[in-house]
Design a protein that fits this description.
Layout: H1 3-13, H2 20-32, E1 36-42, E2 48-51, E3 62-63, H3 68-75, E4 79-82, E5 89-97, E6 100-109, H4 116-136, H5 142-146, H6 154-162, E7 167-169, E8 173-180, E9 188-194, E10 198-206, H7 210-229, H8 234-249, E11 255-263, E12 268-274, E13 278-283, E14 286-289, E15 309-312, E16 318-322, H9 324-327, H10 338-348, H11 357-369, E17 377-384
Antiparallel strand pairs: 1-2, 1-6, 2-3, 4-5, 5-6, 7-8, 8-17, 9-10, 10-11, 11-12, 12-15, 13-14, 13-16, 16-17
Helix pairs in contact: 1-2, 1-4, 2-4, 6-7, 7-8
């Protein structure tokens, strides 16, 4: 880190939580002659980029797909745009933290100062800003408020606050996830946590609608976190959450859950299937549902017993988890979405990074439905890279008691 970088970092970190962009704007004006600095944030539905502090006449959101800023967001690469009738250049820099795509920092520089070295500096500033935004959100609503193009329901507010993020990346894996309808979700949720040895991933679906479903999912996710942080294995985590939900609701409400633990060094996976979320795998060009032994949803009966099954993932595998709001969707004509359509959607997004796959699949689902719906839909995508020295089988069975895969869907 250069002395200038260190000075900039201290300056931004000392800014008020809501004034990070102002501090960056002042710093870049002084160091690079920046004529304009603006932050755009991806909205909850991943459809537009909203300006954090809109300039006069620039209040409208930008398309995430048909604007220079949106293309920089999608490619996750800096993009340049020559300003009309002038010598200035707009630089659009992705603001991303450990795989979590936050938005775009747009900086206008004089043409003679738009050098490769300047782009490197701006990229560093965008990375710094992203980290500081995540810290600042503890103390201000400014950034979350700017992400909204409409009002969230109270149930959706509770669900989004519960999430770890919408993407995460490490040497061994990359994860992307999305909830729909983004501004009115109620029962579906996901959670993950990783350390040096393992990744734990949970997909939950609380029964019911509105606040009832959101409260139920909140109880389940926090019970699973409590058990995980206590050091319990995933069968123990499921059992503890099951008891917590049953104690509260006495079997009247339950939570469908898919709970997975990945051993980072080997690709060995333990899984508890306690309800409706489905697990799919794309290996090469073949997409197939991973058959799991169904166990009781959490909270249905007192002191249910859970057992983990095992399988292995290989480098290049893509796992896909969906709620029943995806595979049970129905078109206005009464046609069921079904497993074949889901397999086609997974295959068609094979070249996209994990962070963007769930949104792409849910967009295809929305086109199939052809109408607004309040049904929850959740999609989580995990790409497995493994470790170079991983010790795992070359062609492992899906599961020890595998009854055989469903017919694969191919390109």
């Amino acid at each position: 880190m250069t002395q200038r970088d260190d000075v900039l970092g201290r300056s931004v970190r000392s800014a008020a939580p809501y004034a990070l962009v102002d501090r960056v704007r002042d710093a870049l004006a002084a160091s690079h002659g920046a004529r304009r600095v603006q932050l755009f944030l991806a909205d909850y539905g991943f459809t537009v980029l909203t300006p954090y502090d809109p300039l006069p006449g620039k209040e409208q959101p930008l398309s995430l797909y048909n604007s220079p800023e949106g293309r920089a967001f999608g490619s996750q690469e800096p993009r340049e745009q020559q300003v009309r009738h002038g010598d200035a250049v707009d630089h659009h820099l992705p603001v991303t933290v450990r795989g979590e795509r936050i938005g775009i920092l747009s900086v206008r520089l004089p043409g003679d100062r738009s050098t490769p070295e300047a782009v490197d500096d701006l990229t560093h500033v965008a990375d710094l800003l992203g980290h500081e935004i995540l810290v600042a959100e503890r103390d201000t609503d400014a950034y979350q408020r700017a992400r909204r193009i409409s009002r969230l329901t109270l149930a959706a507010e509770m669900q989004w606050q519960l999430l770890p993020g919408r993407a995460c990346g490490a040497e061994e894996f990359a994860i992307g996830a999305q909830l729909e309808p983004a501004y009115a979700i109620h029962g579906d949720n996901f959670d993950w946590a990783a350390d040096a040895e393992q990744l734990t991933l949970a997909v939950t679906n609380g029964m019911g609608e509105g606040i009832q479903a959101s409260l139920l999912s909140n109880l389940a996710v926090n019970a699973l976190r409590n058990a995980r942080r206590s050091g319990l294995d995933i069968a123990g985590q499921a059992a503890l959450a099951d008891q917590a939900i049953y104690e509260q609701h006495r079997g009247a409400s339950h939570v469908s859950t898919l709970l997975m633990r990945f051993e980072l060094a080997t690709g060995r996976v333990e899984v508890v299937d306690a309800g409706s979320p489905q697990l799919w795998r794309r290996r090469g060009r073949t997409v197939e549902r991973v058959p799991l032994e169904a166990q009781l949803p959490l909270g249905m009966f007192e002191e249910s017993h859970y057992e983990a099954q095992e399988f292995h993932v290989l480098p290049g595998d893509r796992l896909f988890m969906v709620s029943d709001g995806v595979y049970e969707a129905v078109s206005p004509e009464g046609e069921a979405y079904g497993e074949r359509a889901l397999a086609r959607a997974i295959n068609s997004t094979g070249l996209l990074p994990a962070a963007t796959v769930p949104r792409a699949v849910l967009r295809a689902l929305a086109e199939f439905r052809k109408a607004d719906t309040t049904d929850d839909a959740l999609a989580v995508c995990l790409d497995w890279y493994g470790r170079p020295d991983a010790d795992s089988p070359t062609a492992p069975p899906l599961l020890p008691s595998d009854p055989g895969p469903t017919p694969p869907a191919r390109d």
